[in-house]
Amino acid sequence: MDPYRNPFAPGAGSRPPELAGRDAILEAARISCGRAVKGRSARSIMLLGLRGTGKTVLLNEIGRIAEGEGLLVSKVEAPEGESLARLIYPEMRKVMRSLSGVAAARQIATRGLRGLRNFASIFKIEVAGVEVGVEPEPGLADTGDLQYDLPDLFTLIGKAAQAAGRGWILLIDEVQYLPEADLSALIVALHRMSQEGLTVLLVGAGLPQIARLAGEAKSYAERLFQYPGVGALDPASAGQAVEKPILEEEASIAPEALQAIVERTKGYPFFLQEWASVAWNNAEGPAITFDDVDQAYAETLSLLDDGFFRVRIDRLTKAEIQFVRAMADLGDGPYAMADIAKAMARTQKSLGPTRAGIIGKGMIYSTDHGYLDFSVPLFAEFMRRQG
What are residue 91's phi and psi, to 5 degrees? Predict the structure, then answer.
């Protein structure tokens, strides 16, 4: 079939042609944005899910919804080892400058820009260009403690946005990579926004441990956020995600072919997109048959192994690879740490640093006390295929 008409989008963060099974999450985001703009109490959101479940796609979609509701939108991705101050400073500056152009918000936004000058200086952030006519204001966002400075800046953004009849939503991907102190400061700032009724929201996305990390950072975090899970699609939604785009291209897929894709991918969105894309390209068409799908399976696995899975295992040390291999050899998770240690003929204590290193790289996470699982769906199967 014509590859130029292939509707599927298996790239990282690429929006699928049919965003099936996520209506409840998007509606919750739409309500939060709409309430915020109207000055009503609105809860921020933390999207929790494994790799390849479409969290980044949802963040982008929520950004579009927020723009439609009248909010200013900022999006960042938290890389390993980067401070929150450096990460969001350019976005806060951009928002402040935008609001300073609105007459009703100019005075507050200009004061915010003064605070940002202090903030950049105290946190040693390089500033591109010069803020003409903006002098630092002593005592504003200059303590060097993010838990004090960030709420002050968020408050000024919130008040300026309110004066302009707008709001601000900050989208942060890979939240699990934020240092604990930075996550705590972010939660404190959002708590201040909630208390003062200001139109500043956060939508974060990350691995399942984020809910626990947020709760450990600040006990009130569980009341501050909604924590929707972004998991595998149910069979009906998974089938819709594959079949509807095909039908819209005036082609079709045999029921048994569709069922094979839904069942073998276990409903994980990225895998659905990858396999459906390969099947489309390989089929003569206009109907995709079971044989087309079955023959595309090996090529799909090869693409996943060489891309989606390989880039993750390549980040691990030899000791870390031995650890995850021992996990995979035990079958499918969750895995008891005691069983992993036994399989490796090691003590749990001696494996502590290796375990922490793999968690820090976002490859595994703690599902419960003493239990671990992979953050990448079907990763255990990948490891067993490696022999």
Answer: -70, -40
Domain count, the chain: 3
What is the DSSP pairing of strand 371-374 with strand 364-368? antiparallel
Q: Are 45 and 156 contained in the same domain?
A: yes
Q: Are residues 34 and 125 in the same domain?
A: yes
What would the two tokens of residue 173 be? 């991907």
Q: Among candidates 364, 292, 272, which has minimal Cα distance to 321?
A: 364
CA distances, 244 to each of 18, 119, 203, 233, 281 (Å): 7, 50, 29, 15, 17
Domain that holds residue 239: 233-313
Same domain, 222 and 237: no
Per-residue tokens: 187 = 């939660």
266: its two tokens:
């276990």
Q: Is 220 helix (H, G, I), strand (E, B) or coil?
A: coil
Q: Is residue 325 part of a domain?
A: yes
Same domain, 184 and 61: yes
What is the per-residue pLDDT across 191-245, written as a single tens digit (0 to 9) for each?
999 999 998 999 999 999 888 888 888 888 888 899 999 999 999 999 999 999 9
Surface-to-core class of residue 154, CB atoms within 10 Å of its CB (0-12 exposed, 13-18 middle, 19+ buried): buried
CATH of the domain at 261: 1.10.8
Instruction: Report pLDDT for 356.
Output: 94
More confident residue, 128 or 142: 142
* Token pair belonging to 168: 């601000």
> Residue 113 corresponds to which tokens in the numbers above?
């820009």
Cα separation, 71 vs 161, in Å, equals 9
- Burial string for 108-127 (b: 16+ CB within 10 Å, else e) reads bbbbbbbbbbbbbebbeeee
